[in-house]
Amino acid sequence: MPRFLRWILALGLAGGLLVGAVVLLPFADWLPGGTVGDVPAQQVVNGTAFNRLFPAVAPGEELVFSQEKRGFSEARLKRSGEVVALLAVSDTTTAPEAREKFAAAADSLAGWPLVEQGSQASAVLVGGRFQVKVIGQGVGLDVQERHELLESFDLKALASVRPRRIGSSTPAAATVRSLALVR
């Protein structure tokens, strides 16, 4: 293809994207989506606050934190070097639709609404705000093992977690940060 045609094609594509963005901008509120960036920082718990609440590991197990961001923390549970489960805590302030599935929960675990999500995942909603989820990997975990893992999170402490105010640095907040770093 001649260079001239490539330039025409590139400019046409760029112009089309620009026009599309300008046309869709007034309808942004109607479009699906939304991100944690849409929620003010002072309303969302940082993922580091969740790390200390994950279960303690048994001999032969390893907990490897794989993702941490505002409103979310995830770890992989390994046994004998093989990943057997993903463990996650999320602040549903950033995703209110995640809370909706618990409205019709018929079961509970440690007093919190419990839902099964397919054959490999179990989740509880703690304090009406925090979703704690265990997802089996590979061969996976049976329902009882997933429930035991969910119960081994510090659910009472999780229920009392609140977002840290921006600009505040209390000794308790420093302790939480240092505990998260140790793990």
Structure, explained:
The chain is an alpha+beta fold and 183 residues long. Helix content is 32%, strand content 27%. It has helices at residues 3-24, 48-51, 96-100, 143-152, 155-159, 171-182, and strands at residues 61-69, 72-79, 82-91, 107-109, 112-117, 121-126, 130-136. A seven-stranded antiparallel β-sheet has the order 1-2-3-7-6-5-4. Strand 1 (61-69) and strand 2 (72-79) form a beta hairpin. The longest helix has 22 residues, at 3-24. It is elongated and about 65 Å long. The relative contact order is 0.14.
Q: Give the overall pLDDT as a whole number.
A: 83
Structural class: alpha+beta
Ranges where pLDDT stays below 50 over 5 or more residues in a row are: 170-183
Q: What's the arrangement of strands in the largest beta sheet?
A: 1-2-3-7-6-5-4
Inertia-based shape: elongated
Query: Approximately what portion of the residues adopt beta-strand conformation?
Result: 25-35%
How many whole angstroms does the radius of gyration measure?
21 Å
Query: Fraction of residues in helices?
Result: 25-40%
SSE topology:
Layout: H1 3-24, H2 48-51, E1 61-69, E2 72-79, E3 82-91, H3 96-100, E4 107-109, E5 112-117, E6 121-126, E7 130-136, H4 143-152, H5 155-159, H6 171-182
Antiparallel strand pairs: 1-2, 2-3, 3-7, 4-5, 5-6, 6-7
List descriptors:
elongated, single chain, 183 residues, alpha+beta, seven-stranded antiparallel beta sheet, 32% helix
Give a short summary of the structure.
Helix content is 32%, strand content 27%.
